Amino acid sequence: MDWGESTRRSFLKQFGAAGAMALAAAHAEGMGLPGGQAATASESAADQKQDATRAQRMEWWHQARFGMFIHWGLYSVIGQHEWVKEQEGVPIPQYEILARHFKPKPNAARDWARLARRAGQKYMVMTTKHHEGFCNFDTRLTDYNAVKQGPGRDLVREYVEAARAEGLRVGFYYSLMDWHHPDGAICKTDEAARRRFVDYTHGLIRELLTNYGKIDILWYDVSWPLTPEGWESEKMNEMVFELQPEIIVNNRNGLPGDFSTPEQHIEAAAVGRAWESCMTLNNSWGFNRADDAWKTPQVIVDNLATCARGGGNYLLNIGPMPDGSVPPASVEVLEAVGRWMDTNGSTIYGTDRGQLVPNASCNYTRKGNTLYVHVHGWPGHTPAAEWLDFYKPEVVVAIGGLKAKALSAKILKTGQKVEFTQDEFSFRLTGMPMEAPDTPATVIAVECDSEPTIDHSAERPLWPRYKVGISI
Ligand code: GLC
Question: Does the N terminus or the C terminus of the chain have fewer Cβ atoms within 10 A?
Fold first, then answer.
């Protein structure tokens, strides 16, 4: 993956001028300058204040690295993806009937929170209102909410309490796009409708950030059909920070916010810019009974390491069923990830961004001068060891292109010290067990004398080449 120019290009494409400003600020931060030094005259006082407090507000989040996303709403009752209303053209009066039949068991969120903690996730982000427009929380602004309809209770309150009970940080997802509100589409062309709809939107966000105590993350989504000016996003964020001075916000109300949100792929932002990849466990965010394309624990652990390697976070989704239960396949995967995190969490939490290019068998993370080699393709014994000294003695994990002197190495799962050899081109961990000591990846901690970097392909032009010509 290219952490450099392509990331910068897509960032600029995504955010235009506002993004360019944030990028300038991000670069300034990366160079050790306070974000404020990159601020231009056009940056508002509120923006500058957010820049000034960003590092402190986001400290816990950078440590955390791993969060749980929860998509839950009326769509779970149909069980065919959270876009079912639009994708299948369900008329509003029909869709509204779902609200009467959405009757989840009490406190389902407790099970989500316990599962998140067992999986090693440090924060949660739940859909308070998805595109369907149904509010999972109590509100004075619409009856289309969980207290007045089927559930008869405030599902967001249950969620907040459940997360706190497990010591997890609390995030609210909020979709600006609304398929249900009468002004949700015409607000683009009708000023009176826009006024009403923006007041409604700001009003709901105000309630969310007033009625549930301290909220750690506001996760905006889809800003169709308005521009940031139309949404009055500057004013929106100002209100948010006034109500919750410690909160962090994402970039999906059209402003740069505190972090970028690559979706269903992993792509690091420019150095100094925070980012979080959000991904599904199968292919759907909302419960979809037909979707059994579950990712394996190995894929999840590898994705988590890839995010950590690029200095980013991983927000992994569950789509609870209409009664609130988590699909058993999701539970199974998250528990396996949690067992791995029990041993290897320290190779994810609080790690530093690294210049570390993975190979076919290994991924990497880094903390200071410690390199964590995540071996997901355990080599076992290669028959080539019979002829090649390179692979003796016995099992060898070899890494090309390590630029730092290794001082010591050990397998985290067993504590076993590992012998190694190192020359200019290859670092070889030798005498390893035949079977992988850990699953789905074995981590080997390698202490180095300086910041470890790895780029095996950079050495292609450098290694000595011999025996050109016909010798046989
Ligand atoms: C997309 C989808 C939405 C999902 C979100 C998560 O914007 O519209 O269904 O909630 O991604 O990032």
Answer: C
